[in-house]
Amino acid sequence: MSLNLRDYDYRLPEELIAARPLPDRGASRMMVLHRGTRRIEHRHFIDFPDYLEAGDLAILNDTKVIPARAFSDDGRIEFLFLEPSGDNRWLCMAKPGRKLGLGTSVSVGGVSGIVEDILPTGERLIQFAGAVDLDRVGELPIPPYLGRRVEAADSTRYQTIYARNPGAVAAPTAGLHFTPAILERVPHAFITLHVGAGTFRPVQVENIGEHTMHRERFEITDEAANAINAARRLIAIGTTTARVLETCAQISPPLNDSSLVIHPCSSSTSIFIHPPYQFRAVAALLTNFHLPKSTLLMLVAALAGREFILEAYNEAILEKYRFFSYGDCMLILP
């Protein structure tokens, strides 16, 4: 195992970044990793249900991306509305931040606001005089590496088919591959984690163990907890789901080698999963291909092993898989 940031790097040809989704959600390719034998298969996502065994349960994140990107009325500041924090108060990312010092006034969608606080990580806490109508003035915050502005198709394709709880500023992209027909073939339960921009914050320390993870809100309902606790194996659909399950596993560790029990809760997590982390709840993971040096790549390396993951990524590049949010996927099995 390695804690050196440079050991989670790889070179990706720019043409392999999927700028737009395929016409058919379920047509994505799926690389299957058998981590016990270090075997790699090349399949398609439509084959995903074939890999499930009796007693398996897929856990999906039903968060919905909000139109969180908006601009000041004078067009000088770009905002990402991350999280509401009380009455008409928002935690925001602002670009360029140097124009928004403490006490600075700003107007978005005709609503005036003032910067009340600046966090060490650069986010601004802004108190607005009224409600900012993001549905009217905001747009879906598609990732910047797509290299384009948001398009009409993104309003549906950058949401999972089961998105129902608004609050995310990024999509749980492993779920974008599901169609109603494929989901019908998969035993499943839903949790909610509102994906924040911190998921994609670059690691800026050479020793990844010194990186501080962002905090994200999540919820597990009674219904979901009961289904999870009755399952034989948990298949996490995406890294966001994996982080929730592993957070809950740390809160309620098994006693005397008994089965893990997940309790219903509404909480938040800042868990940072990287080698040599040992997974307690997640048996298998469906995920997309992640950016170099990202915390998401470190999470999958913790599950499958860094060397095996980098070997698989190199093979994906040779086989011309599509990368990142609108790209192909990887299924990591025991």
The CATH H-level homologous superfamily of the largest domain? QueA-like
Biggest sheet overview: 9 strands, mixed
Strand order of the largest sheet: 2-1-17-16-14-3-12-13-15
Average pLDDT, to the nearest integer?
A: 95
* Assigned CATH class of the largest domain: Alpha Beta
Instruction: Summarize the helix and strand pattern as letters.
Output: EEEEEEEEEEHHEHEEHEHEEHHE
Shape verdict = globular
Count of all domains: 2
Please provide a brief summary of the model.
The protein has 334 residues and is an alpha/beta fold.
Descriptive overview:
The protein contains 7 helices and 17 strands. With 334 residues, it is an alpha/beta fold. It has 2 domains: 5-65 and 146-333, 3-Layer(aba) Sandwich (QueA-like); 69-137, QueA-like (Thrombin, subunit H, Beta Barrel), CATH 2.40.10. α6 packs across α7 (306-318). It starts with 28 loop residues before the first strand and ends with a strand. The mean pLDDT is 95.
What are the SSEs and their pairings?
Layout lengths: L28 E6 L4 E6 L11 E6 L1 E3 L3 E3 L6 E7 L4 E7 L9 E4 L2 E8 L5 E5 L5 H4 L16 H4 L7 E4 L11 H5 L3 E6 L22 E5 L1 H9 L2 E5 L1 H13 L13 E5 L12 E7 L6 H10 L1 H13 L10 E5 L1
Parallel strand pairs: 1-17, 3-12, 3-14, 4-11, 14-16
Antiparallel strand pairs: 1-2, 5-6, 6-7, 7-10, 8-9, 9-10, 12-13, 13-15, 16-17
Helix pairs in contact: 6-7
